Amino acid sequence: VYYETGRITGYAWEVDELTIVLRFSYKNDPSNYVYELVQICPDGQSRARYWNWYANGKLSKRTLIEEHRLR
User: Which residue pairs, CB below 8 angstroms and at least 24 apart, start in 53-57?
Assistant: First the structure.
């Protein structure tokens, strides 16, 4: 799926029912981009997100995010 907002542009695709991959870049700096892997826990109560940030084609940093649904 291609998507575009006022700030970013990118693609997303589903690997399986629990995994999504996104690649996006900021419109004001397209030479920098992010690959994001989202893995949803089977119980639907939490997910993990892993971002690889690239600057000029080279890995520049990584971000790990753990999210839990609030009741």
Answer: 55/31, 56/31, 56/32, 57/31
Which residue do the tokens 């575009």 mark? 4
Bridge partners for 47 per DSSP: 40, 67
The mean per-residue pLDDT over the stretch 8-16 comes to 97
Average pLDDT of every residue of the chain: 95
Instruction: Show Cβ contacts of residue 63 under 8 Å, excluding neighbours closer than 6 positions.
Output: 49, 50, 51, 53
- What distance in Å separates the CA atoms of residue 53 and residue 59, rounded to the nearest whole number? 6
pLDDT band at 11 (very low <50, low <70, confident <90, very high): very high
Q: Would you state the structure tokens that stand for residue 65, as one six-digit string?
A: 């995010």
Rounded to whole angstroms, how far apart are CA atoms 39 and 15?
10
